[in-house]
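Readers of this paper often ask what the protein records in our data store actually look like. The remainder of this section carries one protein's record, kept here as part of the documentation.

:::
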Amino acid sequence: MAKKLYVGGLPYKTTNDELKAHFEAAGPVESATIIMDKMTNRSKGFGFVEMTNDADADNAVSMFNGKDFDGRNLTVNEARPMAPRA
């Protein structure tokens, strides 16, 4: 079963393909999506990576959380469900 990871602290120039390639070092990646600002169409500096299996996702957290990625330290943890908006 796939596990979704939150990835924060991304450089603003990072692409979905670069994010996916980086996380493939920990195992197969189903998807990698950087969240974009709707008004400016610029990266918000965070995204989500969906790993193929839970063991690889846990490995990715331990490999990349707090580590440097293109000059910035990443925050990587299991994604939480989005809170309902008022």
